[in-house]
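Task: sequence design from structure.
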């Protein structure tokens, strides 16, 4: 069976499930949803009436007070309202008040006065200081006689002195529910019809896209020059591009060329400098020149050594799937250690570094050496990109149940062209004092450390100038 036919049949199977869902599940959700809205309105009403009845309850004048008179007037009001197609002509609320023992002291229908309602959920739970509500049938044999009761406490100086219950029959919701179910069913049928038409169109388009992808794959296997599909379903076009890249990877072209090119580019400069200095040292030179060229050889050798060391660390880190030596760590201790290690660099550059931390910072679960190295790399970047007499601020806090460290500098910020390349291997920006660029592996290392710790790393420009690096890590549980 062709895949396009399978997709078409599968689509209609899904459409059939959708029809079942609409008829059996969605429609059944209408009635609870409407009752939920009704209950929410009853909660507001009960609490409002409880406040209005509080004075009479405190003065023990519930039967003859102003609240009772207002309820009596309410029951005699005439209503003629058209609400979304429904004609409402009656008021359906029933109001009942019980004292702090659960004995009914007021009933808008004068049927339950003196009765003990302390065992009913609406009264019992409210007297206990929690939300009280119930739904009870007036006639046990009639499921349509269910009445919703919602209660609210009557308070005197934050002490419960009574319970006011507002009751409304659920049968008033029946016309609303029936109309909603009818509309849902009709719109569901319309949706199914439109879905069927759309499914047919999508299946035809998918079939064409898959055929073009098949032709490309067949040509690629045969070793012919072929272009992946550029039109059709987005996923099919992307799959064609993936197949194209996979072909290039299997031929050993793209990966090897890029990696060797980048590595050769980074090593070429220090090797050329070392070679040139070595050739010059073979000639007759003054002691000053010899020292200068020897110093150059040493510095470039260190640069090569640093590059190789960082590449090895990064490669080892990229292949790790979990933390090997996780410990409970104080983030403030790590930050203090980084500040101390950067002290000499800050003094040489006339840069001030400040550490701000919230009190009682919680512990984080991390590998201390990795996290400290990551923080050091970020702070060292901030120092190197800061102007003379600049300020680097390190802030530690807890935000949204995570530990967050931000490192801010007052440099020139990140150029627009560099933002998408910040985490590329060997990519680095020139330092403001004309110093030698870094290896371009530091931020790659930091990102791998943060990902290994299930955290996140963000770099952005500050509105007032400079750059901010924000490192977020989960707290220890």
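Answer:
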């Amino acid at each position: 069976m062709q895949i396009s036919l399978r997709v078409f049949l599968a689509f209609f199977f899904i459409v059939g499930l959708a029809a079942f869902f609409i008829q059996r599940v969605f429609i059944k959700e209408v009635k609870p949803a409407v009752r939920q809205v009704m209950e929410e309105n009853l909660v507001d009403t009960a609490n409002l009436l409880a406040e209005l009845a509080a004075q009479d309850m405190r003065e023990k004048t519930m039967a003859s007070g102003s609240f009772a008179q207002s309820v009596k007037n309410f029951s005699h009001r005439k209503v003629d309202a058209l609400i979304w197609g429904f004609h409402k002509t009656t008021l359906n609320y029933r109001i009942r008040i019980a004292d702090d023992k659960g004995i009914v002291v007021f009933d808008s229908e004068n049927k339950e006065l003196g009765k003990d309602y302390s065992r009913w959920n609406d009264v019992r739970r409210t007297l206990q200081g929690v939300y009280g509500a119930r739904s009870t049938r007036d006639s046990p044999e009639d499921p349509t006689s269910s009445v919703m009761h919602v209660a609210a406490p009557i308070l005197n100086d934050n002490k419960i002195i009574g319970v006011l219950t507002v009751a409304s029959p659920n049968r008033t919701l029946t016309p609303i529910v029936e109309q909603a179910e009818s509309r849902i069913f009709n719109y569901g049928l319309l949706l199914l019809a439109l879905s069927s038409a759309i499914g047919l169109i999508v299946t035809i388009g998918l079939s064409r896209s898959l055929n073009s992808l098949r032709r490309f794959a067949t040509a690629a296997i045969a070793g012919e020059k072929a272009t992946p599909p550029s039109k059709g379903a987005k996923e099919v076009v992307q799959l064609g591009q993936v197949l194209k890249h996979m072909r290039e990877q299997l031929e050993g072209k793209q990966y090897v060329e890029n990696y060797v090119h980048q590595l050769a580019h980074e090593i070429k400069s220090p090797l050329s400098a070392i070679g040139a200095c070595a050739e010059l040292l073979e000639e007759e030179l003054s002691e000053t020149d010899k020292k200068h060229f020897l110093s150059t050889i040493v510095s470039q050798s260190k640069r090569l050594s640093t590059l190789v060391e960082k590449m090895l660390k990064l490669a080892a880190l990229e292949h790790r799937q979990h933390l090997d030596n996780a410990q409970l760590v104080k983030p403030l201790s790590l930050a203090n250690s980084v500040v101390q290690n950067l002290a000499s660099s800050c003094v040489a550059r006339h840069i001030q570094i400040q550490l701000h931390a919230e009190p009682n910072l919680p512990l984080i679960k991390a590998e201390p050496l990795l996290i400290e190295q990551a923080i050091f790399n970020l702070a060292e970047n901030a120092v190197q990109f800061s102007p003379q007499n600049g300020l680097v601020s390190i802030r530690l806090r807890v935000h949204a149940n995570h530990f967050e460290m931000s490192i801010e500098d007052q440099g020139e910020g990140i150029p627009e062209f560099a933002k998408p390349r910040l985490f590329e291997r060997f990519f680095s920006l020139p330092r403001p004092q004309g110093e030698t660029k870094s290896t371009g592996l530091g931020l790659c290392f930091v990102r791998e450390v943060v990902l290994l710790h299930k955290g996140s790393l963000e770099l952005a420009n500050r509105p007032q100038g400079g750059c901010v690096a924000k490192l977020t890590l989960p707290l220890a549980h």
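The chain has twelve helices and 14 strands.
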